[in-house]
Amino acid sequence: MHRHAVGVLWVLAYVLVVSSPLLFMAVRPVPPARPFLLEASVTLGFVAILMMAIQFVLIGRFQSMSAPFGIDVLLRYHRHIAVIALAFVVFHSLMLVLHDPALVAWYDPIGGTWASRTGAWALYAFILLALLSIFRQQLRLGYEAWRMSHTILGIAALASAVVHVHLAGRYISTAWKEWLIVGICVAMVGAYAYIRLLRPALLRRAPYRVTEVRPERGSVWSLALQADGHPGMRFLPGQYGYLRLASPYSLDEHPFSFSSSSQDRGRLEFAIKELGDFTNRIGEVPPGTTAFVDGPHGSFSTDLTPAPGYVFIAGGIGIAPFMSLLRTLADRRDPRPILLVYGEKRWDDVAFRDELDRLRERIALDVVYVLEQPHEGWEGETGFVTEAILRRHLPSESFERHVFICGPNPMIDAVERALVACGVPERNVTAERFALV
Ligand SMILES: Cc1cc2nc3c(=O)[nH]c(=O)nc-3n(C[C@H](O)[C@H](O)[C@H](O)COP(=O)(O)OP(=O)(O)OC[C@H]3O[C@@H](n4cnc5c(N)ncnc54)[C@H](O)[C@@H]3O)c2cc1C
Predict the structure, then answer these.
(1) What pTM value is reported for the model?
(2) In CATH terms, is domain 302-433 a member of 3.40.30.10?
């Protein structure tokens, strides 16, 4: 099925699940009507629970779900939905208090009844989860610690909310209504558990071996892997995989774009920039190390976006997926014109620049380098990739071409605005963000 049609089906499924509480309330047996504030509060609470449950699947790396939208759109959606669900939960509790001020006692997480306590736990777990996500950088919370806390708090909030509904709810007094809501929540958390626990077990059957760890310019390492005892995964150029070294169950797993040609079945390469705990150690990984790759993921690929030509805009290590795209297009002898605008700090940091020169002999590739700190005598573009630079280099028929952007978030935001100012339609632009949280 076409991926846009799949996208529409997912959106419909989402709306159906989230609005199912309204069905609970409308389908008999219906308890006698209560004041408006109370009914509205209960509706918000139900909708919020299902929104929270679906959050587990949204970030669950299901390729059929992420392909139509792109993982960064899904994650942005995950964040926006979280804010709306949190607002619903807060309004749910405030409306109860407005209805009956004595219910303020329900904010007590220790006292009161189990029905009120579990409601309070869900509320506080959810607020804490949101605060940790918003202020992760300021709190200097490492990614792994944040992810662990995010999962635990998410499951705790959802489980408390379901118990709260069971103890306090009137609308799920019928067994089938109760089982339906519990079933939806268990299915969503189960799908997440499948990704975290069962998929690693399946990955054990398809290990890779590290064959080469090659230094590139700009503190970047090319890590090459060879499939061990299996034909290797098929991927589209520009996609990415989650890399684990030594054990498929390791919590230390990181997403990296494939940088090799997708035509080389059985062989995978990543271009990894030293940035933190995991990436700083890549240069020391001994050849022969076992590796596991969960993938392929993502829709940042020319194969999914046919066009008469392309503009690639890379910032720093954002060049990685473009290396896969360019190497693949060269292996396929693709004749379509490509403009690569490649921003880096210094000339000496420009990874793969020698290979880009060689690729220019094999495909219709133009490269424009933009240096933030140019050396003396540099005659090319300088500073950041701006509207003025794009206007100078975008081909006149650029709007027929599809533009792919990959780099740091501020760069992607600025380039997206610049492209709009240059008249490039938004539908012709696809971005991949490496900093998702
Ligand atoms: C879709 C995608 C493709 C990527 N492709 C590449 C690539 O080709 N080459 C490359 O060098 N980098 C790539 N990255 C970024 C890379 O995943 C991070 O630089 C790396 O995980 C940092 O780990 P660390 O422990 O060295 O650094 P840390 O200091 O732990 O993390 C630095 C930052 O990286 C991000 N990060 C850390 N761990 C993870 C994780 N497990 N999952 C998601 N984000 C994480 C967080 O935003 C964190 O703040 C990609 C990221 C994404 C989301």
Answers:
(1) 0.83
(2) no
